[in-house]
Amino acid sequence: MQLEAVIGLETHIELSTKSKMFCSCSTDFGAKPNHHTCPVCLALPGALPVMNKQTVEYGIKLALALGCSIHSVSRFDRKQYFYPDLPKGYQISQYEYPAFTGGTVMLSGDRKINLTRIHIEEDAGKNIHGAGADNHSYVDLNRAGVPLLEMVTEPEIRTPEEASEFLRRIRQIVRYLRISDGNMEQGSLRCDANISLRPKSSGKLGKKVEIKNINSFKHVEKALKFEIKRQRDLILGGGTITQETRLFNAHESVTYAMRSKEDSFEYRYFPEPDLPLLNIAEEWIRKVSETIPELPDEKRRRFAEQYGITDYDAGVLTDLSELADYYEACCKKGRNSAQIAHLISTELLAITKKTGMEFSAVKPEYVARISDLIDENLISIKIAKQLFPLLFETRDDPDNIIKTKGLIQISDSSEIEKIIESILEGNKGNVEKFKAGKTKILGFFVGQVMKETKGKANPKLVNRILIEKLSAVSDEFDG
User: Fold this and answer.
1) Coil, strand, or helix at residue 449?
2) What does the pLDDT look like over 423-457, one tens digit per residue?
3) Are 228 and 251 contacting, i.e. CB atoms less than 8 angstroms apart?
4) I need a surface site. Which of 171, 225, 423, 466 has the fewest CB within 10 A?
5) In angstroms, how far is CA 356 from the centroid of its own chain?
6) Model confidence at 408: pLDDT above 90
């Protein structure tokens, strides 16, 4: 029996508001435990919630970006469950009447993942287990009340790789919209994955298992791959799947049972009596729509068309909105936009990945100048590769670095000719091989010239003069 996975994601997006959802406490990450708390988020008697307007605006932004329906009236509900990280004993969320429904997220290959809804809710605090020498559990309520958007997909994801790509797309979009930093390590973006297996092409859904609080792209893939294998082995072995909630152990790359999976009725939802209905007027939506920037897919297409760059380079350069802005700033200063794209995606980003430094440490005009120097045959690509680390190190402009480091390209044909003649004289055996038709030996001679000139020789001149010299030798041999 061939089985296929059916996966749905519940993605929690922590919003970058300055204050919490229903009180004025700070949302800054990294404060001392329980430092950002007040009577509202501690659920002290008599404390009442007041809605954070920016939370709703951020929700409208995301809904517009993903083509969701925005409802003029929605309602907050109380979701009842009892854990130490929820002082109230319930979470203020949306259930029956969410603010946003529908919408789609596009994956590669024109794969469309439909959304069920996006609703607004508050985050819970954080339980820390075994944190002390006494092996007790502790609760940090700094995160309690931080505003979230929860995005629920239809069960249309089929592979762990698609699940990972979905999350990457969401992180990219929320960063473009500047509504969340999308930092998975800090919990700003995390997901619960619902997964079941069924006979391939069957319309019936199997019994689902939920994997809670996954906070990295790799962990999502590993957790789902493990769970697919576990469920497949169980089904094919004649066993039955238990509807349950499981956790992922990143060290062992396995999931393990946490508790039986709750159904919605077990949360005993009922309308939140301390908050009025949420009204979103058309005028409010229109004003928010005017703040929507050019989104990643649009920008990627425009870059490929406007700047004549490869789809790969366009994808790399539009991954971050800040990087896309940086590239366009470079193009305003330089002539060759395709070459600038290649230099950024290969040289500049390689250094930032290796060192952790910001690409913005190098001025856009410096990248443009290196591109222009290559076009003017004043430096080679090899010299350009040497320049980029020096740009980060010195923060100086390329012309000064070239001058002080003696990196100017050798473009004097008579000087290169002398070097080539000397190399041919010292490698008569390889010259004979070239005469015999082994033309690939040309690469050896180019390498020797570059070695002799420390990579400073103009490669176009080197190739032209080498071909002329070796061809003359071959003609003489044929005669």
Assistant:
1) helix
2) 988 888 888 888 888 888 888 988 898 888 877 78
3) no
4) 225
5) 16
6) no
Instruction: Tell me which residue has tokens 């999308």.
Output: 182
Looking at per-residue pLDDT, the higher value among 302 and 431 belongs to 302
Q: Spell out the domain ranges in the chain.
A: 3-288, 296-405, 413-478
- Listing DSSP states for 224-285 in one string gives HHHHHHHHHHHHHTT-----EEEEEETTTTEEEEEEEPPPGGGG--EE-TTSPPEE--HHHH
How many CB atoms lie under 10 A from the CB of residue 256?
9
**For the segment 454-473, what is each residue's pLDDT rounded down to a tens digit?**
777 877 888 889 888 888 76
Closest Cα partner for 427 from 409, 412, 447, 411?
447
Q: Does 47 have pLDDT greater than 60?
A: yes
Residue range 413-478 forms a domain whose CATH class is mainly alpha
Using alpha carbons, select from 452, 445, 451, 414 the residue that is nearest to residue 428. 445
Sheet strands (E) in 97-208: 100-101, 104-107, 111-122, 126-129, 137-140, 147-153, 189-199
Share of the chain above pLDDT 90, in %: 71
What one-letter code names the amino acid at 7?
A: I
